[in-house]
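Obj: model holo form, ligand = zinc ion.
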Amino acid sequence: MAKSKALHWQEPATEVCPQCNGSGEWVGMFSSGPCANCDGTGLVGSDGEPLSTDDLLPMMRRQRDRAVQQFRQLLQTPGVREALAEHRERLAQKERDEHAALRKGLRGG
Ligand SMILES: [Zn+2]
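Output (holo structure tokens):
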């Protein structure tokens, strides 16, 4: 049963994929795509084989949860929220300036 299996799940030992050096990308002369050796994850099991979906999905969920937690902790750091607000304002101002320049260009000015 899937439920009892999940209770005993342990994150498998992984290694960086030797084919793509962890990028998950295969880059050829004229095209690129997901690395076939690691299914595009950049990781392989300790046996060098691609990780199974049963292992990958909970690993991805854990990584997502860790990233969300780190982001929340970062927002608690003094000054970060203010810096973020300033950054957003700078981006918005840049966009307004670019739009103004475009409008001016359309008018032939
Ligand atoms: Zn790979």
